[in-house]
Amino acid sequence: MATAGQKQQSELSSRIFFVLGALIVCRIGTYVPLPGIDPVALEDIFKQQSGGILGMFDMFSGGALSRMSVFALNIMPYISASIIMQLSTAIFPYMEEVKKEGATGQRKITQWTRYLTVLLAMGQGFGMAAGLEGLTTSSGASAVIDPGMMFRMSTVVTLLGGTLFLMWLGEQITQRGIGNGISLIIYAGIVANLPSALASLFELGRTGALSTTFIIFLIVMAIAVIYFIVFMERSFRRMTIQYPKRQVGMQVMGGQTSHMPIKINTSGVIPPIFASSLLLLPLTFAGFVGQDSPEWLQALSAQLGRGQIGFMVAYGLLIVFFCFFYTTIVFNAKETSENLRKNGAIVPGYRPGAMTSEYFEYVLSRITVIGSAYLLFVCLLPEFLVSKYSVPFYFGGTSLLIVVTVTMDTMIQIQSHTYAKQYANLMNKKQNKQKRFNR
Fold it and tell me: What structural domains does the chain harbor?
C-alpha cells in the first residue's frame, strides 16, 4: 500500500512530466506553418524587419513569428486581454463589484477575458494577414502564394485557433502542472532559442564583428545581471507586526512579535511582459511596413526600432506604470490593515485602521520606486548594448529577467511539494509509532 509520501512524490513527478509534455507540444506548434506562406521569401523579409518590437515579439513566441507558424500570435492576445480586464476592475465600479464577489466574480472575469482574447486575436490575425499580403522581397517575390480574402480568412481562423489552444494549455499547466502556465510558455520560447543565440554570438566573434574581449565582457555582464536579479527577487522589506496579550481559558498568552515580508519587486516579471504586450497590440504588423503604408505608420515603426529613443521611452514608461498598477492589485493596503485589525494585530506606532493603511501605502510606494528602478535598469541597460553592438536579442535584460524569475518561481513550487512530501513521511512515521505504542 502506497504511503502518503509516495503519493506526493508520484503527484510531483506527474506534474513535472505534464509540464514537459505541454511545452514540447508548444515547441512543435511553432514549426507548423500557416497555409499559403512562402517560407523562403518570408525568411528573407523578416531578416530586414526583425528589429525593435518585432524582434521582441519573435523572442516571446520562440521564433514562431519569424517562421509564421500557427502560434505566431503566441499568448500575447490573452495577456493584452488580461491587462484590459485588470484596468477595467480599477476604473469601472461595476467591474470592481464583480471582482469582490470572490470565486464567482473571478470566474466571470476569466470568462470575459477569454471572450476578449477571441476578439483581439481575430483583429490581430486579420491585420497580420493584410500585412503579409503587402510583403515582398528585394527581388519582388511575395510572402503570400495566393493573396485574397480566402487567405485572410484562413489566416485569421488558424491564428485564432493557435492562440486559444495556447491559452487553454497555459491554464492546464497552471492547474495540473507546476508554476504559472502563461509564464512557462513564454519561458520555453526564450530558452529554446538560447543555443542559436549563443551560436550567432560566437559567429560574430569569429568573423571579427565583435572582439573576444567584448564577448567575454558580455558573458560576465549577463552573469552579473542574473546574480543581481536573484538578489533583488529575494529581497524583502520586513514589516513589524505585534499581537497583544490575550487570555485563553485560564492562561494569559504573551504578546508576540512577527514580521510581514513585502517583496521589493512585488509585481515580479509582469511589468515587462505587459509593457511589451501593450506595445504589440496596436503594432501587430508595424514591422511589415511597405511603400504604400501611411506615413504615420512608417514613422511609428521607425521610432520603435532597436536603439531608438521612442522605443526606450515608451517601454520604460509602461514598465513603471505596470509596476505601480500591478503592485496595488497584489497588495491591497486597506484590506491588509483591516485583516490585521480583526485579528487584534497592530503595527507598532500606528493605530489600527486608516492610519495603518496609510503607513502601508507610504512604505509600498517607496518600495515600488526601488522595484521599478531595478526593472528599468535590468530591462533597458542591456538594450543599449544590444542595439549598439548588434548582440542577439536573447541577451537583453528582459529575456534574462523572465528566464531567471520563472525558474525561481517554479523551483519554489517544486520545493513546496517536496516539503509536503517530507511532512507526510514524518506524520506517517509518527502514526506508525503511535500504533506500535498502543499495542
Answer: 211-285+296-395 (1.10.3370.10)
